[in-house]
Each structure stands twice: as C-alpha cells, then as structure tokens.
## 1
Amino acid sequence: WIICKDALNNTNSKHEIYQVDKTPPATTKTYGDPHYPAEIVNDQYPHWIANTTPITLTVDDAGPHKSGIKELNYRWVRVDDENCRSYETCQNYEQIIDKEYDKASPLLYGENSATFTFTIPEESCHLIEYYSVDNVNKAETPKRQCAFVDNTAPVPNKTVGNPKEVWNGKDAEFYNLTEFCQAPGNCWNVTTMTPITLDCSDPEPHPVDNSFVHFRVELDGDVDTQKYCDEFGGTVDQDGYCHVSEQNAPITMKFNETSEHNLAFYCQDALGNRGPVDDEKFKVRESAFNITIN
C-alpha cells in the first residue's frame, strides 16, 4: 500500500502487487532424426547426428512467478574428438571459445516457454552450448553437450569366395557384358557352393558404423530378390532392394540356381548415410568346373 497525506489531512492511497521472479529459465536440448543411438542419454557418450538432424532447444521460464523469456543463447564449435567420446571431458572443456553466442530473442521475447531449432552443417566433433535469460535478467548456467556430426556414407565391400574364376562374359545369354566384364572384379564364374560376403566399411574420421546391407538379385535378367531376402528376414523396397535389418553387416549368401545372376548392393549406416552401389555379374555353373592355375 502507498498512502499520501497533505497538510490539510487529505489522503489518497494506491495498492499494487509485484511478483518477484527469482528463478532463472530452464533450457533442454533434443535431437531429431537421424541420430544414434536411438535413445540418447545425456551422460552416455558418444552421440552421433547428421548435418540434417534438427537440434531443438526448449526453454521454460521456471518457478511460480514467471517474467517471460527474454532471449535464448546458443553456439556450437568444433573441438577435439575426445570431447565427443567422454561426457566428463566435454563438460570440463577449458579452452577459450572465441565464437559469440547466437541469440534467438526475436522469437522468444515475453513468452513463458518457446522452442528454437538449428542444425550443424559440418562434420567433426562439436561442442554445443546454450542458456536462456528471462525478462528480469535471470540467466541460467550455460549447459553443454558434445556430438559427432557424420555425413560420410559407408563403402560396400564384396568378397567372392572359392570356388571361383574370372568370367569374361562372352557366353552371356541375358546380359550384354562385352565392356562390363573387361573391368577387373566385375564378372565371376562361381558355383552354388561359392560363398559371397557383403560387408560395409564406414570410413573415418567419425564413423557411426552399425551399417546395414541392401542387396538386389537378378536371375537371367529378372528381379529375383524376394526369396534371398527371406533367408535373412529382410524386407524388399520399391526399388527391389532387400533391407537386412535383423543384423549388421556383414552377411554371406550363395546362389541357388545355375544360370546368370546380377548382384548389386549398397550400405547404409545408422544415420541413413547411403553409399555407392557395388554391381557384379555371375555365371553360376555346375558344382564343379575347371579352374586354371598359373
């Protein structure tokens, strides 16, 4: 209450109530898709994201007397890889960060809660820092997390076991292989007992690994993927490729028929980075054939 009185004893009063906001805002961070592992636990490293992964900061003006959000501050910088492998190392990062915070205040001013989303375009290990300020300038303690950004696709690696020999493709009936078989490793004579291993190599510098094989089989020029896919419990997509989701690479298969086959496959890592297609032709002969030994 405020009461004013003059010399003649005339009085006037005014009653105002003020809320005191002593609690700083609270900001949380979440990764959208793709990310790995599927369930992100803040203190269990490492974490991987892609350059398309949305990083969402959600801020709430905590406490019983909310003054509203004035601004949200965030920044990300490249740091050494060990910060992305250890939660403690990330939290104890002590080098000087000369990058200014970006401010999302035009989106947030006066609101009691809000969200803001950004992405990190470049590969490597990154330190993410963020904090919010309310309208009475209460600032929360800056928070930080580290994550690998991996945009590099895995490389397919096909190994043809024995028995095998190079096929020149000249007796092909269902494919025109005059030029295709001239490239080393493109064409093979094999049998129904020849193991063929499809593997993936996720290259450095920050491989998420956990790659899956997608393969496509043709028999005499026609797609024949389904029965091979069933052997691995996979699913065939609209492009005729079998997605082997029950196990990570490698997988090993054998052809069931004596005839001509095309076997194409590619690898996709846990972030959805898709590698190039490995495409080879096979002449599957009887259970034995003559192999020339030099």
Note: The chain has a mean pLDDT of 89.
## 2
Amino acid sequence: LFVVSAYVMAAYFTFGFLRSAGGTNIGALTGALLFSLSGFMVSNLCHIPIVHAAAYIPLVLWAFTELKKNRATAKWSLIAIAGLSCSILAGHPQTLVYSYYLYILFIGAQALILGGREAGKFLLRTAAILSLAPLICAISLMPMLELSEQCTRGNLPFGSYTSYNLPLAQIASVFFPTIFGIDHGAEKIDFLNSLGVKTYFGQWNFQSTAAFLGSTAIALGLTGILGQRKRKAIWFWTAVAIISLVFALGDSTFFSIPAFYLPGLSYFRCPARALLFFNLSLAVLTSLGVSSLSKN
C-alpha cells in the first residue's frame, strides 16, 4: 500500500493541478495518468524515496497556482507547506533539490504574469513556504547536511557528477524505449549473459534512462503546443521539457559545466533523474492538448 500510494497520490495531485491550471476534466485525467504511470515513475518503482518525493511535486504546484489566484491563501499556504514537507521527508535529496529549481522557475513565471503589487504578495507567500518547510523538517535535514560534508558526495568530481546520464546517442530511447533492448533485471541478465545472450545494448542501465511517455502522448503534447501557443503556460512547460532533457544528457552538452556550479547540484550524480521533470512537462503539455481538442 505504501508503494502504490505514491502513484495514486501523484495521479490525484496532478489532476488537481491541471484542473486548477485551466484544463478540462478529460485533459487533466489524461495528464494525471501519464505522469503517474510515466517511464520515469514506473522504472523507479524500486526507488521508493524517489517516487514518494516526486508524488508531492504536483501538489505544491497546485497550491502555488491557487495562491496566484489569491484564493483561500491560508488554506493553500498550509497545503503547500504540508506537501513540500512530505516531499522532504520522503528522503531523496536529489529530487528535492531539482524540484526546488522547478518551483523557483514556476513562481518567477507566475509573478511575471501577475505583475504589480499582486506579484509582490505572491512572491512573499511562496518564499515563506519554500523557507518554512525545510525548517519544519530540520530534524531530518540537519543530519543529512552534516553527513554530506563528511562523505564522498561532499566533494564529488565532475566525472562522477555526470555519470549515469542519458547519452546523446541514446536520446532516441525517450521516444522508442526498447530501441537498445530490454533490461530484464540483474538476476535474469546475469543468467542470460552466462548463456551468451545480451538483451540490453545501452550505456548505464535501462532504469536510469527510462522516460517514455507514449507516442500518442507526444503527438497530443505537440497539439497542445500548436493549438494553444498563445498561452504562456505552454511556453513555460516547453522550456522545462527542453531544459530537463538537456540537463539529463550530462556531459554530452556544454550545459553540464555551468550546472555543476549551481547551488546543490554538484552533490548528485545521475543527471538522467531530471527526466522526471521532462515527463511531468510532457504530461502537462499533453493535458493542454487534450483540453484544447475537447473544447473545440
């Protein structure tokens, strides 16, 4: 139940976020199912802290969207703090740090749309939320921060930081997941390898680079971009998709060098985990595409 609950919550929170963002019921349902059952979420089933930390990201975005509308600010501020605290306590700092960058970009984009005094109020509320949640979870964060300075992750070299990336040569696997074969799991692979049978030909492992969302979803996402290109949300989530995909490529692009010096990022290897946000952004774009079709 604990494992399955992450996928149920991810779907429910994504549905709420997409409805709050203006999507139709069918559009929000499509986006919710796509994110909760995306390649990243399903392939990381064995990494329970990752999927639980990821499940609360749409809830925080939902709360920020409602705060932008200036609705029940006390209620949605508490919901945002609770969701962010649960994401922190899930125990996967890499997902937490990555999500904070998404929140900052999202808040900045919403503030630009609001403008004037409303933008200032929105920025103050969200800044307080982003600051208060870590204080509430200090009992978990403080030992983690102390340990980070005493282990190898505290001084991670650039080569380790970019390890377990999505190789540029394998970018096609985002759209064709089995183009480099199928990873059947460690025990089966050892057995098959002993027979001289190789089932996966990609670098690293199948699980680290999985981000497939479905051909139909990609087509509907493009429909969302083309059909609602005047909406600012379309361009924001398109930018998130591009940035997260480029980041996941690691040292295949120049972007990995300046990213290494951004606060908090140099503590973590496996930049391919940014594919979580690639899947989320595609789910949002697909939802907007379906919503556009259902309205017309």
Note: The longest helix spans residues 93-114.
## 3
Amino acid sequence: GQDYYVQRVPGLPNDSRWLGQGATRLGLQGEINDPIIFNRILKGKSPGGRTKLYQKSRNLKRRMAAVDLTFCSPKSLSLQALVQGDLDLIEAHREAVNYAIAFVEENYAVTRVMVKGNRSVVTTGNLVIAAFDHIDARSVAPDKGAAADKATIPDPHLHTHCLVMNLTEVREKSWYCIENKNFYRNQMEIGGIYRQRLAQNLQTLNYGIIPRPKGLFDLEGYSDELIRHFSKRRRKILEKAGNNASPRQRDQAWAKTRHYKLPLLPEDLKNYWLEEVKEHGFVLPPIPKVQVTDN
C-alpha cells in the first residue's frame, strides 16, 4: 500500500520529492511530507481534495492509482554509497533518475481524448510523479516473526520508486487518466537511459566502470564474490525461478519470495554491513578524489 512508499528513511536527507511538470502545475514541489495530500493525489483528487482530476471512468473501483517505475542502482554503487560512505553517489543516482523521468515525461506522457466523436491519442508532456528513495532490499527471512540477526539483515540496495500518478493535464485545468502501456513497452529503454546517465555521473566522480551483460555495469574494484555475497535477495529469486528463467518467471519468483522489511535505522544497517565486510575479509575500494579545476 501507500504506507510502503511514504515510510521515512531517518538519516537520509531529501528521501522523497515531487517530480514532473504536472506536479508543478498542481503546486506540488519539494519533499513529500504530507500523507493526506499524497493520498488525495493517488485517488485522482486535487491537493485540497475538492476537485476530481480525471474524466469519467466506467469502473472507479478498478481505476489504476499509479504506475511504479523503479530505478535500481548497481550493487557495487549501493555498497560504495551506503557502506563505504560516498554520499555523492546517492546524488549521482538521484540525478540519473530525474534525467530518465524527464525523458519519460517528454516522450510517454500520453492520454486519449474524444475529438469529434473519435478517441484520439494526445501527447501532453506533463506527469505527476512521487519519488521515494529506499536504501535496503527486502529481508530473505522465511518467517515474519524471525529475529533480526545477521542471517536476516537486508542487503544494501539503493533504489528509487517513481510513482507516476494516473493524471495528466490536456488543457488548463482539464485532467485525464494516462495511457500507461508505453511505460511497460519501453521499460528496457527507460532503464537504459537511467544507467547511461548514471555511468556518466560516476565517471565525473572519477569512478571506473566495469561493463556487465545486458547493458548493466559495476564500479571498478568490486569483486564478483563481494557483489554476490550482498545479493541475497537476487540469489533467493534465482533459486526459486532457476538461472534460465524468463523475465516473467523471475517476476513471479520475485513476488513469491517477497517478504516484509525489517524496521532498522540506517546507522544500524550500516554497522551490520560493515561487520559482514570485516567478517568475510572483503575490502571496499577507497573513495576517489575528485579533481577540482579552476574555470
């Protein structure tokens, strides 16, 4: 539910924000700190709650509230940012997310309107997006009552949920539901744009990049063993689906192995992660120095 997205991340500044031209038109800017307004937008209402921001729907109970576009940083980046402590990487990730979302808004903000009795596709160029940063994966603990010991601590996983609300403005104060098929059809392209921008940002911070299959990459200095050790959730999914599973089968395995998140503070998580690094003899790469040049 919506509570999963709006949960706060103590110690991680600016962990939520409104994005999109549609949000700006509704006066929604900066941090998402009012759950009442957030819930109104999810329901297709104005921030004040008095105005419905969509046209008539045949089945209001089945009306889609939002589409979740999730941007996941490479495991090595999560480790370097959240365990090694290079907070510039969090900003590099956020900027890449914003860049990808701007592309989505420009190209895939689409709705259908009636023109002379016929439904026509209209590109609006504006969306209302609620972005939430999370820093950990889900626990692999099999039971909800399991104790929070080292075996059940979630791995570092910097990712951002971008909830694209089912709203777009066609004309001034004339709002319609979005056509969401393009988000699903082009999710590989959208993810690729995020990763390409992120790689550019990382190189600006003097990080080397190691290419991986399917357009993925990791930071130089991270061994396969280290990355695999802190990818317990992924290993669980592959155990369930198999190494040769299709994307659909992996999605099903993801849903079947999806467990609750442990209520742990970021500083406690970092201490657990540092203990794991030390116990297994791993060495995290140092934070590179960024050369400052005079203009």
Note: The mean pLDDT is 84.
## 4
Amino acid sequence: TRFPDGTWRRRYDGGLVVVNPSDWDLFLELDEIHRDASSGRVDSRFLLPRRDGRIYLPAEAPKRPGQWPEPEPLLTWDGPAAIFEREGSIVVRDGNGLAMLLDEHGEVQSLCSGGLEPIVAVKPVLVRDQHWRNFAFEDVRHETSSDTTLTFTGRRTDRDQSLGFRQTIRPADGGFSIEYRWRAETPLKLHAFRQAVHLSPRTLGGKTLRWPEGEVLLPKETSDSPNLAGGITSATLPIGDRGTLTIRLPQPALLVDDRFYRGRGYLLAIHPESGEIPAGREWSYTLEFVSGRE
C-alpha cells in the first residue's frame, strides 16, 4: 500500500516491510515497538534512508540504537533554513516546511511543501532536433554564499552547439526564486527550449489548479487530450487541508498532461527561446515558488 509520505508498506504475519523509493530520507512512526532486521535498532521511530527498504519485526525488548550509523546530514524536507549536500544531492530549506532537492547539475529533483511533494522536477530542456535529446552538462560547479544563496555555473552542449548558464536559487518572500541566465557561446539552432515544472499526479490528482483568470481540475487518470490549459502566469496548487503553493512564471505557460506522451505527470511549461540564436546573445528569466494559506 502506498502511504501519504511516499513509502510502500506491506504487513505480514511476522512483521512489516517498508520501502522508501523517494529522494528524501524519511522518519517512520510505528504504533508499537519493532526491531529493524538490518540494523538491530529497537524503537517505534525509525529513519528510513532514501531509495532503501527495511523489514521491521515486532519486539518486546527495551529500546536500543542500531549497529549502523545514520547517514549525515539527513536529507529531510523538515528543519531549519539551510543548504547542505550528501551523495551528489543538495537540499535547500526555508525553515517553514518548503524544501527542494537538486542534483549536482542544479536540476530540481523534488520540491516538498508541508510534507507533501507537489513538484517532482524543475528543469530546462534544450533540443536541436525532433529526436528530443537534451543538451549535455559540462563544467558544472556550485557554491553557497553567506546569505543562503546557491549558485550553479556551467555549460550545456550538443556537438557543435554550446551555451553557458548561471542558475541562482535565493530565498524569496515565503519561498524560493530560481533565476536562470543564459549566453549563446556558439550560434544555436534549437528545435525547442522548454523550461518545465513537473507536477505530481500522486499529490495533485483530482485537485484544482487555479490562476487569476481561471481554474482546471487535474485528472487522476491520463486525459484523452494532453492540453489542459494555457496562458498561466501564476499557478496556485492546493497543499493538504488549507495550504497552497504558488508558482510564478515569467511568461504564459501551457499546462499539459504529459502522461499522454508517456511522461511522469502534469507539465507546466514555458518556451523562453527557440529557432536560430546568434553567438553572444544573452537572456534570463525567473521562477518563484511561494507557500501560503487559503
């Protein structure tokens, strides 16, 4: 059974099997004392590392720590405002329940709000032809400044085409902003340049996405037509009972049910550039993710 925290659980006569397929470390709260068959820890509260699974056996012994040390730092969405990394992943938290997890290239792999995961990716996709092969990353570096700003710099390349980028993540009022700056290092001929925000059907299926001019019900099952709405510059998502997450976009976006094309969920996308771009041309845009209450 899939639980709201993203874990899969199955109860057997002799114990409980729990799998955490997510990119986040999770804390598991059980009703009774159990023993972790792997580490030997006896407790009712366990850390379940990301992309891992454990067997928990009923126990009557007193609580005791396990033989395995817990990973440090913990990649959890909850906690004080911070930027930290482990195993090629970087976590940015605002201290108020909003957190994003990025890979070493700066692509957002998950964004959590209030313990739920409404966003499963934020990334630019650059392709030169109809085969939709994304430009590769080269020479990517990142650094953190004293004001909790995270900056990535590097290049995106595909054979004879190249462009440099600078991506900056900053605290914003009630959330985060992600600024992208691009510079064509060679002449470019792009079939598509898509800045995409991938929304999770598991969290948002059956919920209503709203923007100032309208609203749309996000279908639980794959829709018969991929296009759900257009002209969206500020999308507000419901989070839990009364929470919200608003995505502010620099230009009107198209909302697509990407499962129609065998994608992973709903796709909120803008297209900042396309076609032929001369060497030396620069452009930029910013996305904002802001928590709120209804």
Note: The CA atoms of residues 258 and 265 lie 5 Å apart.
